[in-house]
Design brief:
The chain is an alpha+beta fold and 121 residues long. It has a single domain, classed as OB fold (Dihydrolipoamide Acetyltransferase, E2P) (Beta Barrel), CATH 2.40.50. The chain is built from 4 helices and 10 strands; from the N terminus they run βββαβββββααββα. A 7-stranded antiparallel sheet has the order 5-8-9-3-2-1-10. It has a 3-stranded antiparallel sheet with strand order 4-6-7. Strand 2 and strand 3 form a beta hairpin. The longest helix has 7 residues, at 26-32.
Amino acid sequence: MEKYYAESHEWVMAVDENTVVVGISDYAQHALGDIVFLSNAEVGDTVIFGERFGDVESVKAVSEILSPVDGKVVEVNQDLEDTPELLNAKPLETWIIKVDGKIDPSKLMTEEVYLALDKGH
């Protein structure tokens, strides 16, 4: 399945016709440094494209996680409660929330376009 990326460095990937998973990019986890805590959405929460659904706390800073999709949270990755450092170890394999929603490619970038961006900002 293809990942799509938001300008705010979150990724989203469809797992089936109506469900997607959301995570953060390798660039985001690298910029944050060692992740020590994650505040997350809860099952049943509504997420809106471009709006905050959680925060990632690292030894350097706290950063908002913005939703790359509209929908309803159907599952949260419980493993991240005890081991948020999974986002550092495997950022492109570790999802944060599972959402009942669909990807809108017109609002996002393909992985190829995202990786080609100059991330010096």
